[in-house]
Amino acid sequence: MAKISKYSYICSLHFTENCIEKTGFSCRLKSNSVPTIFPNAPKENTADLENTEPSNMPSVIFESISQREEEIYETPSKKRMCYAGDIKTAEMKNMSPRTLIKAMEILKRSCNKKDKIINRLKVQQYRQKKRIDSLQTLLCELRTKGLLSATSSDIVQVLKSLLSFLGIYMAPLSCRA
Question: Where do the THAP-type domain residues begin and end (predicted)?
Fold first, then answer.
């Protein structure tokens, strides 16, 4: 059996009014209080109980800011829009103007992210082309000065064919010999 701590909370709907002591905003359960879980149960299914032994359990304190008769939590009928994939074109006809504005903001944000990615990739590609061109000029200088052997030149040609196979552009070497 679980022990009830000093700071346990209990629903006030399970007890009658005379079982609860109200002081200010806090409510305390009187000792020897018995829960009435079924408040509208028929008389034939209930029995009067007397607790002759004093209870050693501490009184349970519970506070409520607003006590409602019944709180029902339901899952929302519509999914929240957080990403561009959450927006369905079929549902856009039934959206309110405020929801349409929110959808447009989400789509703009998504577009801006993709634009940044595209620009970053363009810069990366431009830098790679510049680096390839500078390496090609370096190879041309090494060949003209005779510092590059025949086998090294063959290796460079194989690398060049590999790069073209992978789709990386390499300008043809035009060295002055």
Answer: 1-38
